[in-house]
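Hi C.,

You asked whether I'd gotten around to modeling the 643-residue construct. I have! Everything is below, sequence then structure, no commentary in between.
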Amino acid sequence: MKKIVCFIMVAFISLHAQTLNVVENEFIKIVTGPEGIDYPRFSIETTGGDPSRDQDDNLPLIYGRPKPWTSFTSIAIDNTVYGFGNPTKKRSGKTAKYGKVIASSITKEKTVVIATLGGIKATQTLSLFRNPLTNVKDSVLIEYRLINETNSTKNIGLRIMMDTMLGKNDAAPFRIGNDSVISETVYTGSKIMDYWQSFDSLVSPNIIAQGILRYTPASLTPPDQLILMNWGSLADNPYRVKVKKGRSFIREGEDEPDTALALFYEKKPLGPKKARTYRTVMGLGGVSLAPGDLALGLTFPSYIAITDPNIYTMIAYISNTGGFNATKATATIELPQGLVLKKGALTESLGNILPGGSRQLVYYIKMDPKNAREGVKNIKLTVKSSTLSDQTLTRKVKITGQPKLTAIGIGQPTIQRGFDQFVDVPVEIKNESDVAVSKVSLDLLAESPFSIPSFEVGKKEIVVLDPKSSRQISWKLKVDQWYKGNYQIPIRLNSIFTRPATINVPIEVTLGTPQGKLYYSEPQFKIGDYGYIWITLMDMPTFSGLDLRLTWNDERLKPIRVSPEPWLVESEPNIMQKFHVSGNNLLIKNLAAENPYWRTIIGKWHFKAIKNGEVTIKLWQGDEKLDEIKLNILKKEANRNDI
């Protein structure tokens, strides 16, 4: 097996001289290797594991000792398959191409790595995650965000391959819906369950692993295929792999099982500058157990909001661990008030269960908000047979109140004429409830005198907001008209779990509409004449950082020079550096004035008339036109008295 790795002591010392990157809590830890080869491939291990079991401490869930390398993520871009992160020299993913890691960070809660490959910026985020089946952070949220930085559409797919291992056991069956999987298979479409679990025994499991594939409050993205096969086949084929149903998990040339799984996402078009996110969860399983001759297990979210509209999967595990047949066995589920069965049977015949035999039953449960009451409730599973004693298992579920989201503007956004055209509008959103809330949308409704600039969007979304947490979102608004006053900007807050709400964020605009004026030395000129334009500002307050732009038709006018006014020359020794002619643009950068006159002359722009016809000269601040003026250029032989 690959899990038994031989190496000489020198190599061992050299490896551990490099520091592993670890994010951990009292239940679980995320490990990525040191920067270099195979970085940032990861493994997941327990620390304290399930507090109710001592035997699952400090054991692997995803193999990665002495450093992670066997599991990897691949990204298919058009006809090329890339491995995420740095290249490898080992078998797993060796045939893929690789890009370049450009940034990384690590905190107490998560590790983030950013890489570029084939015009795509890919971000891997691994963070501690509150498991909905246990209500503690004993799992890892695995997220990949892909941004197409090119100017063309790319067909992009993803595969996350995980080299699963339950402590020392690499042959525990995968428990998926009604199935206990012990050989190669694939699930697609609606056959993919909300989660899978893996354990070796209901009586005294070594460790219980769990992958969550579908959980709406966390905006998880179920794969197109869930592939279960031997590690070697997935290691050698970095994206698409041929599944042979029923083939053993034992690799060719080996004599022991070597299990692995892959979450496969088909290639789909991703437009220029667009982004796509994939999210899944791996960690410890949340299963209530009752040992005995008929050993029972029951799994279901440990908490659910009273307004949650989703349907959740509940699985009952039944195993005959005694020495006699369990004949005419039946299983009965009792649900508390407020939970209703949408699919499945409250009582189901199990037939005869032979010694060592097992059953897995699937139920689909939904909240009934009209009849639900907040508090801790019991779900009861009872199994009876004519030969063995009845066995009952109770699993507790907490029904919480409607999630509550609040939003408030941060500070007092203010914009003063002459400084900028854009104002920041920051908002803090808080989830004050005990459950996560997903797909939180905030829609800013710009009203006069503001508008949403082309580089901004009015509607923004928070993928998931954890319980008792907050997030800041900010917009930039453009000031279209400079009218003094206080304005209320409405922002609508919504999610599928909460009632819609609207907050108003105040913005203060000071000192009215700026007036830029242009004056000419003469209204018309002959070809070859020289003239100038006065550039002035009217009724301006104290200002700084002011940028202006003068434009003209360069077929009819040729720029000669600029003459700044004396007050500018006196206040700024290097004033000419603030004036720059480029093509048919005069750029005036970073002007400042304290208590300027009611009419402030910036200076004169001198030109030469070179072609007859009408010409328009315009003054701009950013993309807002402040003023324009028209001149007539006459042919050289023309006489003004004839006009």
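If it helps when you're writing up: The domain at 9-284 is CATH 2.70.98 (Beta-galactosidase; Chain A, domain 5).

Thanks,
B.
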